[in-house]
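Box 3.1 A note on notation
Throughout this textbook, protein chains are presented in two layers. The first layer is the amino acid sequence; the second is a token string describing backbone geometry. Keep the layers aligned when reading.
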Amino acid sequence: MWLFLATEVLFFGGLILSWIYSRHWNQIGFDAGARETKLWIGTLNTGILITSSFTYAAGLTWIRAGNTRRLVQCLTVTLLLGVAFLALKFGLEWRDDFAKHLFPAASMFKITGAEEGGARLFFIFYFISTGLHGVHMVVGVALLLWIMQRARRGEFSALYHTPVHAVGLYWSFVDIVWLTLYPLIYLVGRG
């Protein structure tokens, strides 16, 4: 799992460094793009993911104590929080972005003038990074379901819970990626 996460760091790291580099050369357009994002959704989603990491960690603590029932309860809450994140990001925010003509390939892109090029680039990074993060969230939700199913069958105990720990590392990594994307998308350039 650590080796896999190292490759993910390289993958997302390159994307984030490209974002920062591009923003440096297109600051006005990136600022215009950032002002179009929904700060309340990004902030709420950040709180949701931080809480989901807490509930997953609580479940890991419970299985280390040998309590499978509490593990499943904590993972159920984590799963619901993950689904809430996806619903807000893609069901509400992306839908609104498309409705407001913020998709960068559209011929009727909302932002025009001197800011258009940089704003289009901002939204290219926005849709790629949040889309990739969303794919990782969906994989995380599937992994949660897999761990919950195995836990209900009694496959984990205080002595053996390595898969629970490995999936927890993945879930925490996906949350850390969001904590890096959040300021790039919603905070930088909003002032």
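The chain has one domain: 29-187. The chain has a mean pLDDT of 93.
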